[in-house]
Amino acid sequence: MGGRVTRVFRNFNVENRARQEISKEKPTPAPRHPTARMDAMAESPELKEEVLRKDDRFLTLLKDVYVESRDPPARVKDGGGEHLPRKQEEKRLTKLGHLEGLDVNKVPKGKISIVEALTLLNNHKLQPQVWTAEKIAAEYSLELKEVNSLLEFFIPFTVQEFRKETKKAITGHKPKKLT
């Protein structure tokens, strides 16, 4: 509804407003910067002569300038000692059992792979008294705070199967006959 109303006001007297806009005088352009006029003046012979003429005063000042540069002494590169030291990450083997082919074999300490995460969440869900947060943190080299957050906020999916009896109860309904 609102679109129709605004369209009426927008289209009201469009032709007259367009004629007024077209009949207005065009605004005068802003004055050009003097560098823009240089192209037109470049054709004059006086300017060409001024540009090509050598100034003796500037030449003497230029001759007084003396620049001396020296390269730093060259170092022999042996290739072994110039690399920056890197922090070596400790890695651990994954604990995957029969799912070993699905995931990586080595994981940095303090991290777990996707398959390991699903495995430990499922173990905790099935046996929470055996797979406590402390045991999981020790088993997978994780921090206890992170394990508690993982167990609190991530829950593995569950599959629920409904009995066939409920299906029969739904399909056992007889439609009413029209009389």
Order of strands across the biggest sheet? 1-2
Question: Using DSSP, what is the number of strands?
Answer: 2
Low-pLDDT segments: none
Rough outline:
flat
Report the span from N to C terminus: 47 Å
Structural class of the helices, strands and pairings?
A: mainly alpha
Query: What is the count of helical runs?
Result: 9
Please bin the fraction of helical residues.
40-55%
- What are the secondary-structure elements, in order, as H or E? HHHHHEEHHHH
What does the largest sheet look like?
Answer: 2 strands, antiparallel
Radius of gyration from CA coordinates = 42 Å
Average pLDDT, rounded to a whole number, is: 77
Strand residues, percent: under 5%
Family: Belongs to the NDUFAF4 family.
GO cellular component, one term: mitochondrion
Protein name: NADH dehydrogenase [ubiquinone] 1 alpha subcomplex assembly factor 4
Pfam families: UPF0240
In terms of topology, how is this protein built?
Blueprint: H1 2-11, H2 14-23, H3 34-41, H4 45-52, H5 56-64, E1 91-93, E2 106-108, H6 114-126, H7 133-140, H8 144-153, H9 164-171
Antiparallel strand pairs: 1-2
Helix pairs in contact: 7-8
